[in-house]
Specification:
The complex is a heterodimer of chains A (about 110) and B (about 110). In chain A, about 0% of the residues lie in helices and about 55% in strands. Chain A is mostly beta strands and about 110 residues long. The chains are: A mainly beta (about 110), B mainly beta (about 110).
Chain lengths: ~110, ~110
Amino acid sequence: EAGVTQSPTHLIKTRGQQATLRCSPISGHTSVYWYQQALGLGLQFLLWYDEGEERNRGNFPPRFSGRQFPNYSSELNVNALELEDSALYLCASSFGQANQETQYFGPGTRLLVL
Amino acid sequence: GNSVTQMEGPVTLSEEAFLTINCTYTATGYPSLFWYVQYPGEGLQLLLKATKADDKGSNKGFEATYRKETTSFHLEKGSVQVSDSAVYFCALVPSGGSYIPTFGRGTSLIVHP
């Protein structure tokens, strides 16, 4: 069974540009979570999608947005990039809600903003 | 709000030494508790979990017990190996409401031969 996949693996952008990151969950999983892992800050929750709907978002500005497609894959968009957006962005999927179901993580997309 | 506090790293040990990585949490109700491991250059992998008080999660020689009275979920291993070198994250997911995970900052473990 294929795991969670993310693309691209690396992304280099300049300030003010937009970045689009993609995630494909494990087959059968309906929930997708996005996290930002900045150096020294641990994982910060960004967004949670389930069954195509945004269920919750973390303490990030509106320029961080996303969506979930009918096949449960997901996109994270970051507009008006700032230098401090440089981080590893992790996607995770689960069969149901994360309190009982294990989250499975992808390898991440490393975003560098110059 | 919810929070997870882990001991600062890095933790440096010799092979076959005993490992403890402390984790305490703040949350209402009865959250589920998790330990994840991140090997260099990889994403996070679930190491073990416990979903109610006094439960013990175990995997690959690692153990952690859900202690409601001390709000702790310390990770232990009796004899570490060089291959255990990684970053370990403690996390909680609340039992109701948002179901949003909260992660600790991670503890780096370095095991020398």
